[in-house]
Write a structure and sequence with these properties.
The chain is mainly alpha-helical. The protein has two domains: 67 residues, Winged helix-like DNA-binding domain superfamily/Winged helix DNA-binding domain (Arc Repressor Mutant, subunit A, Orthogonal Bundle); 150 residues, GntR ligand-binding domain-like (Four Helix Bundle (Hemerythrin (Met), subunit A)), CATH 1.20.120.530. The chain is built from twelve helices and two strands. A two-stranded antiparallel sheet has the order 1-2. A hairpin with a 3-residue loop joins β1 and β2. α7 runs antiparallel to α11. The longest helix is centred in the last third of the chain and has 23 residues. It starts with a helix and ends in a 5-residue tail after the last helix. One of its GO terms (molecular function) is DNA binding. Keywords: DNA-binding, Transcription, Transcription regulation. It holds the Pfam family GntR.
Amino acid sequence: MAVTDEAILKIKEMITRGDLGPGDRLPPEKELAERLGLSRSSMREAVKALEVIRVLDVRRGDGTYVTSLEPRLLLEAISFVVDLHDDDSVLELFAVRRILEPEASARAAARATPELIAALTVTIDSVDGTTSVEGLVDHDLDFHRTIADAAGNRYLASLIDSLSSSTVRARIWRGLTQDNAVERTLSEHRGIVAALDRGDVELARALTLVHVSGVETWLREWTEPTAP
């Protein structure tokens, strides 16, 4: 194991053991390096790496602190990687959404409250035939984000938000080229909300699968050559 990797692992163990918690300040570099039996240079590199992935927060002139370790913060590194995708990988992103989002809807259906249904209904009612394609995509992002949050799993919600935000270009493209994109999206959203309102877990899962798969299928038809 590389020395820097060993340093990262030891700091991680301090956090998982509870020696360091969210918001705690790390001991000075020299003291920490001696405690863990590592060189100061390897400790410095480990801290830099953990700062990049938002585990540590280096405050110049103040010290190094453990971040809040909130899921959205820790998953920013994944979001960064996803943002670097090229057009050929968008289909793969949709495939992952197709796996995750139906489960989020199913979980949300089991936990649905009148407040959730009201919030989703307001979101749908804010869109009509005069809404721009960009406005429709904003609505779509908000709709799926609300359901993912309602699923009650912060890591799942963060992953879905990262993936969903990274497919915006494809969804705008669909809205510009496919007839009745607004009406179709709203109809599918209303069906999902109705399933959530009834607490129908399996129906919510199935309707979300069809909804996400519809965009994926459309994109595949546009990007893959037609067989002779």
